[in-house]
From TrEMBL:
The keyword Electron transport does not apply. InterPro entries: Peptidyl-Arg-deiminase_porph. The lineage of its organism: Bacteria, Bacillati, Actinomycetota, Actinomycetes, Pseudonocardiales. Gene3D superfamilies: L-arginine/glycine Amidinotransferase, Chain A. Signal peptide: none annotated. This is Agmatine deiminase. One of its GO terms (molecular function) is agmatine deiminase activity.
């Protein structure tokens, strides 16, 4: 549908939610890690359900196991899925004068890196099931590739959107125009990111998030770690954000959230960052990496950034091995205006 004159906008994550969508992981993707990642997802779902309703999608054959793992506080919905990354496969919701709508960003397996016969239809299926207006985006992307402050500003990495594996032949200006129309923003702040080294091509939600309009929290690598493409991307992004002006004409306050260090042996793709937290009604669900000092410091920073919200720590030992985290596995449905 056309967005012209519709008045849709994407609210910030702290805007009140009606519910959270999640999805149940499948063995064909996770193989020997399946039980560990199912434990992680069930733990996240149970934690969120203490604050707001959770609807978890699962293949028909997995419904019973998912319900048993998540408990009666989580609704399990029989819709086929390939994987658990609801942030990217589900609709990205916007609000307007007539309630809510869902933007379908045409999920293509992060540029064809993973099979997605079911996941490419997840946004459409959710919106049809709930009879919510579907807005089909004129670009290809994922929910994790954008971050908004709810006041007119959007952050994104070029690597995950201005990329021929999603949007061949489309310029950054083309994509920016689409983002502004889809999500009701007037300012897009681009940072470089990193292409080709993780499945998402470095989504913004693993690098920088809005804690409030004018306040950005960044995942800071250990200063003693060797320089690589990701540490260079952090420094490039920080330099851009330090000079950026948001939609309200403000310079941004940057808050560093240091990454954990003492996490034992992990795979190359393990996502060891705290900024992939998820804001719920009255709380913040954050990862626990068992680096006690780093975990405690991150919790203290988030407590200061989100006063009055309960900070809940959830282990993500197996989920992180898949290159994602809590935010990647969730998608909020905002309350309509």
């Amino acid at each position: 549908m056309s967005l012209h004159g519709q008045g849709w906008r994407m609210p910030d994550e702290a805007h009140p939610h009606d519910l959270t969508y999640m999805a149940w992981p499948a063995r064909k993707v996770w193989k020997s890690d399946i039980y560990g990642v199912q434990d992680d997802i069930a733990g996240i779902a149970r934690a969120i359900a203490e604050f707001e309703p959770v609807a978890l999608l699962a293949d028909e054959r997995d419904v019973r196991a998912a319900q048993k793992a998540c408990g009666s506080g989580v609704e399990v919905v029989p819709i086929p899925v390939d994987d658990l990354w609801m942030r990217d496969t589900g609709p990205t919701f916007v609000v307007g004068p007539h309630g809510i709508a869902g933007v379908d960003l045409n999920f293509n397996g992060w540029g064809g890196k993973q099979r997605h016969e079911n996941d490419r239809l997840v946004a459409r299926e959710i919106l049809a099931d709930e009879r919510i207006t579907r807005i089909q985006a004129p670009i290809i992307g994922e929910g994790g590739s954008i971050e908004v402050d709810g006041a007119g500003t959007l952050l994104a990495t070029e690597s995950s959107l201005v990329n021929p594996n999603r949007n061949p032949g489309r310029s950054r200006d083309d994509i920016e125009r689409a983002l502004k129309e889809l999500f009701g923003v007037t300012t897009v702040i681009w940072v470089d990111g990193v292409a080709g080294q993780d499945i998402t091509d470095y989504h913004i939600d693993a690098l920088a998030r809005f804690a409030a309009p004018g306040v950005v929290v960044m995942s800071r690598p250990d200063p003693a770690a060797p320089q690589d493409d990701f540490t260079r991307a952090y420094h490039q992004a920080r330099a851009v954000l330090r000079e950026a002006v948001d939609a309200q004409g403000r310079r941004l306050e940057i808050v560093d959230l240091p990454e954990p260090v003492d996490i034992g042996r992990r795979g190359r793709d393990f996502l060891a960052c705290y900024v992939n937290y998820y804001v719920v009604n009255g709380g913040v669900i954050m990862p626990r990496f068992r680096d006690q000092r780093a975990d405690d410091h991150a919790a203290a920073v988030l407590r200061e950034l989100y006063p009055g919200r309960e900070i809940v720590r959830v282990p993500v030992d197996t989920l992180g091995e898949g290159g994602g985290g809590i935010h990647c596995s969730t998608q909020q449905v905002p309350k309509g205006s």
